[in-house]
Design brief:
The structure is a single chain. With about 290 residues, the chain is an alpha/beta fold. The chain has a single domain, classed as Alpha/Beta hydrolase fold, catalytic domain (Rossmann fold, 3-Layer(aba) Sandwich). It is about 30% helix and about 20% strand. The chain has an eight-stranded mixed sheet, sandwiched between helices. A hairpin with a 2-residue loop joins strand 1 and strand 2.
């Protein structure tokens, strides 16, 4: 495994940065609809649904599910609320998702299982949420990037049951972890089987990655290798590299374990690249 425990501590802080029609509430851009998408082992897992503030057009819209960082051991859905509001403002239904964190007997295997369950749940509620089940994107920050990428590229027994897919159709990855954390698997299975790098290729959906070139947590070399494997297989994978910044585009490259100081210009450009990528693939209307 590439990353020492100190790197995973940094990942634990990764999310801090950051035919029936329904009408969105007037304050939908600020206050999401709180739902339980899964109950498992006595735990209720929540999803927070942000609707486009201006309501819906005549046809179904696209959706995006957002997964926070946190070294697989901490964090919560609200770490992605700011990004969710950005996507909702573009006309998407944006869903910030909680998942089981690695502690006790829980490992990243369960987190990936929750990720898949969330994608199935959203598609099963496509009519209620006024979304197109064939345009459901995944957004992952740091450790969350590993979750959505594995869900996209690795088949699961429940995928396609009753015609309902558990895979994202497109990926937006912000400083993503493309290797799984071996030390958290507790001897269960092989971490490489849950590493996006292992599966990058023809099965990878269209992907856009944001990364700093001084990132010591999710190194730029890993992002480049991931992109190379996808492109070599004939897939679409864009990588946008920002000079002089580290994890989550922090300017504080000397201490990427805390005190994140994201470069505002680079951060704005990263979101602009995501917006363009979505527009080019019909997920949001071109203006």
């Amino acid at each position: 495994m590439r990353a020492p425990s100190a790197i995973f501590m940094s990942l634990a802080l990764a999310g801090v940065l950051s035919a029936q029609s329904v009408s969105a509430p007037a304050d939908a851009a600020k206050q999401p609809r709180e739902c339980v998408y899964r109950e498992i082992d006595g735990q209720k897992l929540k999803a927070f649904v942000f609707f486009p503030p201006g309501g819906f057009s005549s046809g179904p819209t696209s959706a995006i599910l957002l997964f926070h960082g946190g070294a697989w051991t901490m964090g919560s859905a609200d770490w992605t609320f700011e990004a969710a509001r950005r996507f909702a403002a573009l006309g998407m239904v944006a869903v910030s998702v909680d998942y089981r964190l690695s502690q006790g007997i829980i490992t990243p295997i369960e987190a990936v299982d929750d990720t898949r369950a969330a994608f199935r749940w959203v598609r099963l509620h496509a009519t209620e949420f006024h979304i197109d089940p064939e345009r459901v994107a995944g957004y992952g920050v740091s450790a969350g990037g590993q979750l959505v990428a594995v869900a996209a590229m690795v088949d699961a027994p429940d995928n396609g049951i009753d015609g309902t897919s558990s895979k994202p159709d497109l990926l937006l990855l912000w400083s993503p972890a493309v290797f799984a954390p071996k030390h958290l698997f507790q001897g269960r299975g092989n971490a490489s089987d849950h590493s996006p790098m292992q599966h990058a290729g023809a099965a990878t959906p269209p992907t856009c990655i944001i990364n700093g070139d001084k990132d010591t947590v999710t190194p730029i070399k890993d992002a480049r290798d991931f992109r190379e494997r996808v492109v070599r297989a004939g897939g679409v994978c864009e990588l946008h590299v920002y000079p002089g910044v580290g994890h989550l585009l922090t300017r504080n490259v000397a201490n990427q374990l805390s005190d994140f100081d994201p470069d505002p210009e680079f951060r704005a450009d990263g979101y602009a690249q995501f917006e363009r990528f979505l527009k080019e693939r019909g997920y949001i209307p071109a203006k």
